[in-house]
Amino acid sequence: MRIASNTVSDDILSQIQRSGAKQAKLQNQVATGQRIFQAEDDPRSVGLVLTLQSDQRQIAQYAKNTSRALELSQATYSNLQGLKQVSDRATEVGTLGAGILSPEAATAYAGEINQLIEHTLQLANTQFRGEHLFAGTAVATTPFTATRVSGDITAVAYAGNASQASIQITENSSITASTTGATNTGIGSFMTHLVALRDALAINSTSAVTAAQTNLISDEDTLVSSLAQHGGIQTRIEAVQSQQKTIADNLDSAISTETDVDLPTAIVKLNQTQTAYQAALQSAASIMRLSLLDYLK
């Protein structure tokens, strides 16, 4: 049977093109370390990778939320510690003031407490990333406003609310990293009792100092309880962060398994394909040089 010369050349050209395309694909795999470039390369793996990447984005968002919650809790904890230090000194002064003091000593202690009141107001109105820490969900509102007489604070009012913002940290759980409404109003009471202690010392009244001291000890319990609560919150958040990192690492590994090329195998296949490609070119060149005269010899 006679075969047309153009049919032979078309078959050879098609074979060379397929071999060249396979060679180019293997070269890309070796160069990039990836075995999938288009959906048709492996539809099953592409579908699985898309699902895994969706899970990655979700975990990444939860990780951002968790980091934000931890930062918020840490900032709150730091300011609560500052308030606790004020409380420690105030109760110490209260203990001293409950005894017999000279007018000069009482006046000096009153001046010290006055400075502690100013410092407490500063801590209570602290902002973190532009939001007030002790205002509940009314983060744009300055939570504590002071009434002053001759420059000294005489009363403090709370302008925040008792709500707490919830932060989603996993698919099925959230956390509140801010202080409770009871803690916030307790901070207001703490400042009110500091004012009472200062005024009691200013008039050197032992009974008034004792009454203020009793209230300050109760305020300290509120601060200690809130500190303990935030310590627990941070422990929980850190545990979630560890879990999120493990999940993220597992997702990375699963995607790598689906997309990464087996480099040694790919290199062997590339060498084989290059050899076959060169052989195909040489064969094509030899066949194309044949003519009818070659068969008549």
How does this model look, in words?
The chain contains seven helices and six strands. With 297 residues, the protein is mostly helical. Helix 2 runs antiparallel to helix 3, helix 2 runs antiparallel to helix 5 and helix 3 packs antiparallel against helix 4.
CATH architecture of the largest domain: Up-down Bundle
- Percent strand equals 5-15%
Number of alpha- plus pi-helical segments: 7
Outline type? rod-shaped
CATH class of the largest domain: Mainly Alpha
Q: How many angstroms separate the termini?
A: 21 Å
User: Count the strands?
Assistant: 6
Q: Biggest sheet: strands, sense, closure?
A: 2 strands, antiparallel
The CATH H-level superfamily of the largest domain is f41 fragment of flagellin, N-terminal domain
Strand order of the largest sheet: 1-2
Indicate the topology.
Layout: H1 5-32, H2 43-97, H3 103-124, E1 127-128, E2 131-132, E3 144-149, E4 152-158, E5 167-170, E6 173-175, H4 181-202, H5 206-259, H6 263-289, H7 292-296
Helix pairs in contact: 1-6, 2-3, 2-4, 2-5, 3-4, 4-5
